[in-house]
Every structure is written in structure tokens, then in C-alpha cells.
Amino acid sequence: MTTSRRTFLKRASLASAPFILPTRIWAADTKPNDKPRMAFIGLGIQSRGLLGNFLHQDVTVVAMCDVDTTRREDGIKRVDDFYKSHPDKGIPGNCKGYNDFRDVLARKDIDLVCIATPDHWHAYITIAAMAAGKDVYCEKPLTYNIHEAAAVMAAAKRYKRILQTGAMQRSSFEFLTAAELVRNGCIGTIKHVDCNFGGPSRPHADPKEEIPMEPGLDWDLWCGGAPLVKYNDKLSPRGVHNFFPMVWRMNDLFGSGYCGDWGAHHLDIAQWGLGMDQSGPVKVIRAERSEKDKANTELGGRAQSGVVLEFAGGITLKHNPFSVFGTIFHGTEGTVSVNRGKFEMTRGTELISRFTKKEDGGSLDGALAKARKAFLTDSTYKTKLYKTKGGHPADFVACAKSRLPACSNEDVGGRAAILCHLCNLSYVRDASFDWDPVKNTFANGTGNAGWLARDGGYRKKWSV
Q: Does a structural domain hold residue 298?
């Protein structure tokens, strides 16, 4: 497959001339294939969940790609087993395995790509896939840094591709209800938002001992644009596993900590409720470090919560530790609090509806219905937000066919990623700074432009 890689790099390198789309790629005025062909790149536990969903959508899965041979073979078997038991959905034996994502993107017959790699690969593969004429479902956070977020947003528009970020809370009714209550003024004017999730990334450290490389893993390709660190089975646990590896997520060479992992969900809902999908904060205020924070060398002496984002008009958003609610909107007339499977609304001192646990009685659906019946009436329900049909993956497939923007499109995912990275930067640099949400850069002589991209640059040919 060397030739196809060379051809791909000439054609879809980020520094190349504009890519000419293959004739079979969908256009707004042409009818797409009834069965779009889909590939999966990155085959960990998150990808397996997505695969189980997409197999039931109107797509045919034809390629599985991972740098780990065991995961790749397992993915192919899962697809074949599904099609054996669902012959109306696809033909067993047609799904091929790949080590290198470039070989997948070189296939002109593939329409859709699902990317569920570690964070440091998201932007490069997403942009390359769009340049190759593919529509993309990419897990959150959409990018590893702010520079990449701007690049992905621009690329989706340049190549006219459909992009769905895996911020699936936008496809859950409790979050839609919360955002609509806020956007329709049902708790008055918003003054403050609390977002509750874990802390920032941690300083990287090489393994203390050299670990023998196990066969069946392309470690160089796993590292990609990040430094080629010593092989570490904690960073990339081998084979098929039933847990979410947290080491690479917390390592600042490859991930962005809980700020990226969970912030991409809850900060996204804050953006939705505030109507900021096309904008962002104008100021970032550092958190005060406690003596305990300063003494914790494992965490780099970084504060773990307390950064404040300030938006135009004086609305503030504070990052707090994990709590019962992911996002809490505070208005002049009440509050709306929401998390997965949990909801609460108050007006003044009156509790309107609540479901946070079984002991509350009733159900989540009942609590949502009560709030909607009381406040989202015909006379007040002016702002109706995007409601997906059939869930997040189904929305992506439908939008790939209709050519309409997806629920968590490039602007939604890109802006949410920028908020995650602004929080992380403030913690890592122990700094406050002003921000320009139009140019996506620091303002008023604050900050440092070098903070927006990868420290030390990208390795080899993997620059974004």
C-alpha cells in the first residue's frame, strides 16, 4: 500500500493545493447512495459503542483501522458477526482491516469516517478525511489544542463536508430542555453558569523502565505528531479492553485531562444555553492555587478547579469539581440544573420540578414534562433548538444525506474544544488573559500566541 500512501500524501497533505473531490462524492443537488459506506479509525471501547450504534443505521461498515492488530481483528469480527445475523444490513467478509488511516482515506468508495482515536490524532485525521471527500464523525474533544480547532472549523467549510462531534449530550432531551428553558428566558436573564467536571491535564513523564515492545502494535504511528516517547502499555493498553484508558487522557502530550474529556460535554451545554455556538468568552480568569495544589508534583502544582470564563455582557462561567449536576444556569428569576439523567428547575424559592435520584419520586421524563408544560407554552416558546431524531449517530447519517449541518457540527465542536483548552491553558500557565472569540486568539497584549499550538511543534509530517 506504499503507493496509495504516497498518492494520498500528495493529494491530501495539509500543505497541498485544494483537493478535487471524487465524482461520486455527494453534492447538495445530487441523490446520495442509499447505503453510505463507512470506516472506523481508532477501535477502543468508545469506538465499539459507536460501532454497535452505526451498524443499525443506514450505512454499510467496510473498513476497520487501528494500530493494534488485536483490536483491528476484533473490529472486523464484530462487523462480520453482525452481518451474519442481520443479512439485510450487509454482507459478511466485506469489511477490511488497516493499520494506517491513510490507506483508508485513499479509498474512493468510502463516504463516512468515524474517528475515535486518542485526542492528539483527532484534528489531523479529521482534516485529512475531509480533504479526501469524507464526512466525519469525530469524538470529543474535537481537537487537542486551539490552533487545531480553528483549522478544523475552516477545513469543514473549505471542503464542504458534514462533521459531527461526539458531544452526544445535545441529542439527550434533558439537555435540550434545559437549553430551551434558558434561551427562552424562563429563569430571567442569565448572570452565571457553573460547570462541574474534573481537573486539567497533567505533566507528562516517560516510563521509569524500558518496557519491551509487544508485537502487533505500530507505536510510532500511535504517537503520531506527539513526541515519540518510550513504549508504555499504560498509555496504550494492548488488545480489547472494557475500560476507558485515562493515562493518555490525562497526559498533556496526548490529551487535555478532564477539562477536555468532560469539559467538552458540560461546557458545550453551557455554550448551547447561552447561545454562544458562534462565539466564546472575552476573558479568562485564573484560579487561585491552594498550598495543597502547589505541593502536588504529580499534578504539576496546578489548581484543579476555579477558572472563570467571562462573556460579553458580564456573564461568568466557573469550572468547579465534579458534582451532582454537570451544568447549572443561574438567572435573575431562577435556576436550571442538568446532568445525564438528572434535572432541576427553580423559580425564586419555588421548586418547579426535580429528578436527580429515585428518592425524588417520579421520573426524569415527568420532571421535564412538568417544566416544559409550565414554561415552554405557545406564548413563551419562541426559541426552538435543534432536536435530533434517533440519536447522535443517526443525526450524522441523516445530515450526510441531506447536506444540512449536523447537531454538533464543526462550529459547535470547535467552540466547545476552545473553551476546554482555554481552561487548560489558564491552569497550566497559571495565567489570566483576554480573548478574541472572533479571531480565536489572545487580546489586549495578554497571553502568548505560542500557547495556542503544540509545545515544541509536531513530529515528522504530522503538522496541523
A: yes
| Residue pLDDT, tens place only, 22-63 | 333 343 333 334 799 999 999 999 999 999 999 999 999 999
In a domain, 448, yes or no: no
Instruction: Tell me the Ramachandran region of residue 424: left when phi exceeds 0, alpha when psi lies from -120 to 50, beta otherwise.
Output: alpha
For 36-68, letters b (16+ CB in 10 Å) and e give bbbbbbbbbebbbebbeebbebebbbbbbbbbb
pLDDT tens readout for residues 227-260 = 999 888 888 888 898 899 999 999 999 999 999 9
In whole angstroms, what is the distance from residue 425 CA to residue 303 CA? 11
Q: Give residues with Cβ within 8 angstroms of 410, minimum separation 6.
A: 142, 152, 153, 155, 156, 157, 163, 165
- Whether residue 379 is contained in a domain is answered as yes
- Residue 375 domain-assigned (yes or no): yes
**The domain that contains 354 carries what CATH number?**
3.30.360
The answer to whether 226 and 256 are in contact (CB under 8 A) is no
The stretch 99-126 carries a mean pLDDT of: 99
Tell me which residue range forms the domain holding 309: 173-201+262-384+432-443
User: pLDDT per residue over 345-384, tens digit each?
Assistant: 999 999 999 999 988 889 999 999 999 999 998 877 899 9
Cell numbers for 260:
477536555
* Nearest residue to 148 via CA among 453, 442, 461, 458: 453
Candidates 343, 408, 179; CA nearest to 272 is: 179
Q: Match 454497535 to its residue by C-alpha cell.
A: 52
pTM for the structure as a whole:
0.92
Cα 92 from chain centroid?
31
Strand-pairing partners, residue 371, are none
Pairing relationship of beta strands 308-310 and 316-320 according to DSSP bridges: antiparallel
Sign of CA pseudo-dihedral 346, 349, 350, 355: positive
Q: Is residue 236 within 8 Å of residue 286, measured between CB atoms?
A: no
- Report the C-alpha gap between 320 and 166 in whole angstroms: 23
Domains in the chain, number? 1
